[in-house]
Amino acid sequence: MTGNTKSVYSRKNPLHAKISKKELLTSKIKEKKTWHIEIDLVDSGMEFTPGDSLAVFPENDPNLVNELLQVLNFTGDEIVITPSKNETNLRNALTKDYAITTPDKKLLNAAADKANNSTLKELLSPDNKKDLIDYLWGREVIDIILENPAAKFSADEFVGLLKRLNVRLYSIASSLSHSPNQVDLTVAVVEYESHDRTRQGVCSSWISERTEIGSEAKCFITPGKGFRLPDPEEDTPIIMCGPGTGIAPFRAFMQERKSTNAKGDAWLFFGEIHEDGCFLYENEWQDYLNDRTLSKISTAWSRDQEEKVYVQHKILEEGQEFWSYLERGAIFYVCGDAERMAPDVDSALHKIIQEHGNKSESEAIEYVNELKSSKRYRKDVY
């Protein structure tokens, strides 16, 4: 790798890289699709550290773009201005430059005015924030257009009511010391039904299912300064909790630890819906256990038994050993779902400190705050 190149690539100057490998990690099951994706960095000079994220520029679903054009009675050839103030045709702008899923308030207000939709106008009043959130759940730009057929727009006017299509961040699942010419991602395809339509995650469905080997991905590194391994020479233990795609940075951690012969114990908590079909990178974890790069792995399979078991249950189950790790100065890393998993794991952490550390509720809170201030409790949640 060439030196002094860490900051060469950015939002304004992304790397135009090629996708070199795609593998469906959950091919045995139908409930979810999680992909392993490798992006070629040969001759790019791009550098990153385990714990960093890759910012990826996605593209919108061409079928959704076609439907929007049809409903709005546009050809797609109309010339419009992109958020970067460049000229392009409308089809290209709706594919690569503008967000066509979550509607902006500007669009909602314009549709309400043009269609004289009093119900939507009422929802948009400042007093009705919660009702508006409920209304918008599972609705996209196409729904707003379909529900307000009297609202007519010119091509320029329409794109002026849309947000910029933003980059999506993915925790990097590889280490340059292990794989010098690539960056790996672990991507779960977001897909659900709402209002009689199938919805898909913008970037997850694009990079996983609409690209091919050799397709271009525009990207740059976003540093994860708060999510770093201890010095490999130090004897600091680490505990990693990464259910689902939260496993990604810990795969990078293990590759780095093996390459640097890191000291200190390493314990991984991983959870998914089924052991058979969802144990992401299972063979790799086994290899790391065998060569002692990884000291211990604790797994939770939520749907392999009648009662749902999650990572927080496993943490509580092994509370005594978890506490001993903390008392030896362990760093606790949590990666994954911010809405449910992270608060449940946080609650389990407090309970362990109370129960096994013989502390009161307020003392446990103080202990956790101390973990945070000394950077021994680190989160990468989304």
Give a short synopsis of this structure.
The chain has 382 residues and is α/β, with parallel strands linked by helices.
What does it look like?
- There is one protein chain.
- The chain is α/β, with parallel strands linked by helices and 382 residues long.
- The protein folds into three domains: 15-55 and 169-222, Translation factors (Elongation Factor Tu (Ef-tu), domain 3); 62-159, NADPH-cytochrome p450 Reductase, Chain A, domain 3 (Up-down Bundle), CATH 1.20.990; 238-381, Nucleotide-binding domain of ferredoxin-NADP reductase (FNR) module (Rossmann fold, 3-Layer(aba) Sandwich), CATH 3.40.50.
- It contains 15 helices and 15 strands.
- It has a six-stranded antiparallel β-sheet with strand order 6-3-10-1-2-7, with helices on one face. Strands 13-12-11-14-15 form a five-stranded parallel β-sheet, with helices on both faces. The chain has a two-stranded antiparallel sheet with strand order 4-5.
- Strand 8 and strand 9 (197-200) form a beta hairpin.
- Helix 13 (319-327) crosses helix 14.
- The longest helix is centred in the last third of the chain and has 16 residues, at 341-356.
- The chain is globular.
- The protein starts with 14 loop residues before the first strand and ends with a strand.
- Residues 1-5 have low confidence and may be disordered.
